[in-house]
Amino acid sequence: MKIISTKNYDDMSRKAANILSAQIILKHDCILGLATGSTVEGIYKQLIMQNRNGDVDFSGVHSVNLDEYVGLSGEHNQSYRYFMETNLFSQINVHRGNTHVPDGTAADAEAECIRYESLIKELGGIDLQLLGLGHNGHIGFNEPDDKFPLLTHRVQLKESTIKANSRFFEKEDQVPREAITMGIKTIMQAKRILLCVSGTAKAEILKQVLSGPVTPAVPGSILQLHPNLTVVADEDALCHL
Ligand code: GLP
User: Fold this and answer.
1) Which of 51, 128, 175, 188 is the most buried (most CB within 10 A)?
2) CA-CA distance, 219 to 63, in Å (whole number)?
3) Residue of 133, 157, 168, 231 best suited for mutating to test ligand 1, as the one with most atoms within 8 Å of CB
4) CA-to-CA distance for 205 and 16, rounded, in angstroms?
């Protein structure tokens, strides 16, 4: 595991974006695993600038997103497809057909999970997976549990996650209760993982993730076992380590 400490959120965003663009420069047709959330917004802003400056070219890149809310279509302004469109895809030269997010409106959610898992395999696996961290230690939407869910699956969100994510919705009861998420094995099979964390509110959970016991009660703790994990976190997030 390599931990890169940054001065603040902006510094984290620039350093993480540079790691992603280096990956694309080294392999122009790489498969990127992408994430949503406030943590990654700054990273995507940096990537947009680098793309405009001609420093990084997304024309050969394929992307697979970690997760999506069940019941929200890509047009819903709180869906993760919509987040990706507005915060990244519409502003870079990626081919839209090469971008993938689980379909939250699939009539058969279980079949959608199987399709998504095979899609990642057919693409040849994820070269670099970007991750944020939930306040309860979740990665993607793999919530604390008594076992690690392996493959892409439908998940019941924890009350704490619904609360945390309600800041994006008008009312808490509008937050979907379920999601489709890549599983822990899906994530761990990525060749490289880039975990980004910012702020004191995540300091305690980041400490548990990086130096506590590996347990499904803290899903992100499994990352300690990944052979190629890079953590880019600001000083606030790293203050308990
Ligand atoms: C959501 C996403 C996660 C993300 C987490 C943290 O629940 N499913 O992939 O890492 O939120 O989000 P934020 O970066 O906004 O704190």
Assistant:
1) 128
2) 23
3) 133
4) 20
C-beta 9 within 6 A of ligand 1: no
Quote the tokens at residue 170.
């008008």
Between helix 80-87 and helix 38-52 the angle, nearest 10°, is 40
DSSP state of 130: E
Q: Tell me if 195 sits within 8 A of 229, measured CB to CB.
A: yes
Rounded to the nearest angstrom, the distance between the alpha carbon of 37 and the centre of ligand 1 is: 5
What are the angstrom distances between the C-alpha of 217 and each of 17, 162, 174, 199, 200? 30, 18, 27, 22, 21
Q: What is the pLDDT of residues 151-166, one digit of tens each?
A: 999 999 999 999 999 9
pTM reported for the whole predicted model: 0.98
Contacts of 170 (CB under 8 A, 6+ apart): none
Give SS3 for 60. coil
CATH class of the domain at 2-234? alpha beta
Q: What is the pLDDT of residue 190?
A: 98
Beta bridge partners, 63, equal 32, 99
Rounded to whole angstroms, the Cα distance separating 66 from 180 reads 8
Tokens of 9: 């959120």
Q: φ, ψ for residue 20 (rounded to 5)?
A: -65, -45
Q: Which residue has the tokens 């619904």?
A: 162
Closest alpha carbon to 134 in 201, 86, 187:
201
156 Cβ inside 6 Å of ligand 1: no
Structural Rg of the chain based on CA atoms = 17
134 lines ligand 1 (CB under 6 A): yes
Return the pLDDT at 33: 98
CA 153 from chain center: how many Å? 15
